[in-house]
Amino acid sequence: MKFLKKIKYNIKFKNKFFIKLVFYFGISLLLFSISTGSLFAYMFIRNTVNLNKKNLELRALKLSETLSRTWFSENDPIGHPPENGNGKKEPFPRRNMRIIEDIAMAEVWIIEAETGLIIQEKKNKVSHDSYLTLPPNAEEAIYTALNGNLNTTENFNEFLEKKSMTTAAPVFKNGEVIGAVLLHSPMENISSALNNGIYTLVLSILLALLLAGISSILFSLSFTKPLNKIKNTALKLAEGNYDAKTDVTQDDEIGDLAKAMDFLAIKLYKSSKESERFEKMRNDFITNISHELRTPVTVIRGSIEAICDGIVTDENTLENFHRQILSDSIHLQNLVNDLIDLNKLQNSDFSIKKSGINLFDVVNNAIRSMNQLASRKNITINFSAPEDTANYLFTGDYQRIRQMIIIIIDNAIKFSPEGRSIDIVLKNGKNCYTLDISDQGTGIPEEELEKIFDRFHKSDSGNNDGMGLGLAIAKQIAIRHNIIPSVKSILNSGTTFSFEFPKKI
Fold first, then answer.
1. pLDDT tens-digit map of 127-141
2. What residue spans of 381-469 are helical by DSSP H?
3. pLDDT score of 124
4. 3-class DSSP state for residue 308?
5. What's the mean pLDDT when you consider all of the chain?
6. Which residue in 111, 228, 311, 346 has the most C-beta neighbors within 10 A?
């Protein structure tokens, strides 16, 4: 009862796939059973009839051989034909017909070829008739036997009490046909065997269908159960429960689907965490950019209002106001330019104009531009390239590559203490050029290394100037040029940014 209740609970007639699976399996099984049963029934009937026919022919031949050796033998006193009251010999003994039929297990007719008489037992009496009085179809069967050929037919039914199969076998003496013996086997024996066989077949098919039906239900349940688990897991994922698992471990296509669903759950979990992190970064960015914009805008506005109101009249003070306005304006411009650059680089529709450039020249140009900024903190920039400077040929956007290098150098200057040095090494490798930019700054915590190229990210240690867009822009420039960026850092020791420039793009 518990098993049936479980099946009923699992089905609930709501699982359309389960119903379809059982239906298709049942229909296929039914068609298979009908076709197989019909073929088997046909073969069974045919084999049964043929077997009965062969058995009847074998008995007829044995009886024919016996008659040839005994009753038609002149030396056999038992089989010698007795005389009747008129002094004439009877063609066949009247006695022993019942014995013959009992032995043959069939009604027996004996035909004498010379006279054409039929000896048969009717109502405990032996009767004599001529086969020539029979209809043509029956007469033809006897005629075939008298010509020395075995013959089986059903053309004697109208002379017999029951529908029968008849076999006519010739009786030989010294190689000459002297008669024939006919065995009539009732068809009801065959019909009974056929009925029993068909009954057994139908019963077996019904039992097989029942067992197969139960098996199909169990198979369908085992097939749909993991699918239901996968469905339920998908619904949980849709609700935001990314900890949901299918708990399906079978090694097949359904198992692969379950593994894919579990993998999707992991990806969605990571994506949700990434979305949460990005949302936090976005909120932080809005807060920071609001502050960054508000401060220079407020200063600029205050300075302009003071000038317009005539509060500032001294030339030196007025000049300082003008310089402050210019400085804040440049800061706003740089901030806007960074946002525009990042947006352009992240847009795949934005094309970069590439041409043949020399990386040595690009790096050297960037260093010249940053030397003045480095000198303010008494920082020395050391640049070396072991190979011939003309060997660093690359296909790319000169200004964008220069911008990427300047961003890294600027970042190194910001986080380096005064009086330190920055080492830049350009190497010519087998498949790529390698650019290493190393500083002696505060370093980057290990947990932040994977985030430093993210937009809006700002380190919690050291200098917090800027909006956290520089490294994000540098990464996008690298991506657009198939350059591979990487970073290594040791706290309180320094950081090294590495870039691998492919020689073939």
1. 556 666 676 777 787
2. 398-414
3. 46
4. helix
5. 76
6. 111
Fold of the CATH domain 253-344: Helix Hairpins (1.10.287)
With a cut of 90, say whether residue 424 has pLDDT above it. Answer: yes
User: In the prediction, which pLDDT does 268 show?
Assistant: 83
Domain range annotation of the chain: 81-187, 253-344, 351-502
Do the domains 253-344 and 81-187 match in fold?
A: no
**DSSP letters of 134-165?**
S-HHHHHHHHHHHTT--EEESTTGGGSSS-EE
CA distances from 13 to 10, 19, 20, 24, 483 (A): 9, 7, 11, 16, 59
Q: What CA dihedral angle connects 130, 133, 139 and 145, to 10 degrees?
A: 10
pLDDT over 50 at 406, yes or no:
yes
- Please tell me the distance from the alpha carbon of residue 36 to that of residue 32, in angstroms, as a whole number: 6
CATH superfamily of 351-502: Histidine kinase-like ATPase, C-terminal domain (3.30.565.10)
Whether 268 and 237 have beta carbons less than 8 Å apart is answered as yes
253-308 vs 187-238: helix axis angle to the nearest 10? Answer: 20
Strand-by-strand arrangement of the 151-153 sheet: 125-130, 117-122, 107-112, 176-186, 164-173, 151-153
Rounded distance, CA 282 to CA 284, Å? 5
DSSP-based three-state secondary structure for 230: helix
SS3 at position 356: strand
pLDDT at 205 over 60: yes
- Find out whether 33 and 205 touch, Cβ atoms under 8 Å: yes
Distances (CA, A) of 335 to 173, 332, 338, 467: 130, 5, 5, 8
HEC profile for 43-60?
HHHHHHHHHHHHHHHHHH
Question: Is residue 284 classed exposed, middle or buried when 0-12, 13-18 and 19+ CB atoms within 10 A define those classes?
Answer: middle
CA separation for the pair 187, 160 (Å, rounded): 11
Instruction: Give the residue among 435, 430, 436 at the shortest CA–CA distance from 503.
Output: 430
Residue 220 has pLDDT above 80, yes or no: no
Distances from the Cα of 25 to the Cαs of 3, 185, 210, in angstroms? 21, 45, 13
Residues 6+ apart with CB under 8 A from 209: 29, 30, 33
Assign domain 81-187 one CATH number from 3.30.450, 3.40.190, 3.40.50, 2.30.40.
Answer: 3.30.450
What is the average per-residue pLDDT within 185-196? Answer: 71
Question: Is residue 505 over pLDDT 60?
Answer: no
Task: Give the global pTM.
Answer: 0.44
Mean pLDDT over 90-103 rounds to 58
